[in-house]
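tool=predict chain=A
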Amino acid sequence: MSKAAKFLVMLALVLAASIAQGATKPNIIVILADDLGWGDLSCYGAKDLKTPNIDKLAAEGMKFGNFRANCPVCSPSRASLMTGCYPDRVGVPGVIRTHSNNSWGYFSPIGPTLPQLMRQNGYHAAMIGKWHLGLESPNTPLERGFEYFYGFLGDMMDDYYTHLRHGENYMRLNKDIVTPTGHATDLFTTWASDYIKDPRRNEKPFFLYLAYNAPHTPIQPPDDWFKKVKEREKGIDEKRAKLVALIEHMDAGIGKVMEALEASGKKSNTLILFSSDNGGDLPPGANNGPWRDGKQSMYEGGLRVPFIATWPDKIKAGSTNGLEAMTMDFLPTLVEVIGGTKQPRVDGTSILPALMGEKQELVREQYFTRREGGLKYGGKTIDAVIKGEWKLLQNSPFEPLELYRISEDPYETNDLASKERRIFNEMSLIFMKHLQEGGKVPWQKPLH
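tool=predict ok
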């Protein structure tokens, strides 16, 4: 055999081994809803809505009851998902908005992002839906690690059909401005399904981040979905009916994405994580279950969110877990799943043992911060820290700190700040330590 022939044989063997190794790595889909309340899924106890497709994910996998988002508003939790860090440690203590005078974050280039780590480990990384971490270079999805982006750069849409925000079009296909027609939920569903069915997905494992903007305001479900809810739920409040319809419409979209996954033959080797960026928004009628308050708040209703994970033959079907995990745990978990190198700068912890049915405890503090403008906040922060059975929080920058023993008072009804002064002082020191750590990172666009 000639040297050239031997080289070709060796090359073929190397390629075959590489393909075989890639085939063992699971595809990964992260689905993030926007402002979905803890109690706004039928599998989490809702009685006036039906979410059969998300319920099916729970039935086929694991449902968490004590999962918290990293922040009670959008951008910070998304920054934590992308980095595995507390959001203020990556420059996003508040909402990044389209107007600079009301924007309270700038996504720092510190550390690799989740899609960058996926690509380093042989994955194709795609994002479809709402980005909300920057409108311009260097903080666009393609520049922060994704190879493919089809979605919306901004904070919210003023209309689910025009997709505009303050009269501007932030819809993009990679770098190009696009003007698609249709309800945003349907568009994101179609684009995600098309991505999964693309023959190129057979070339390497994929990581798909599907970020719906539903059920964020404006509460604008398709008319037929609203009509169906009104006919089924006799006597339902109209405001609540619209929100239920918007959630059910999103659930149907997730069902179509799952159908595309099954039709592609990839379901058996795909890990799916589903959650929300923060608690449900109460004014439009959200249901946060038994938890106090909702979106924007440091009480549990603003932080507690649904979390479901499914992975055929790996995660036990129909299982539940009470682990107090957080959005920032996604990154270290997925890095461990794919056999990547553990990242030294992350704050999150891999919860893969829990997903695999092993007993796992997370002995750590949980810290939450949110910076906001307007007369209600004045550009200051609201914050909370949880350690063991205790939670210290300040839900207004102009009000005193509150202390709750959440092991006995999970619904935060009895403020013990004046009675438990030793605990109050200890928790206050932890509180300040986190504030100092987050304060090291600029959260406004740097001057050039």
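The first strand starts at residue 27 and ends at 33. The chain has two domains: 25-355, 366-438.
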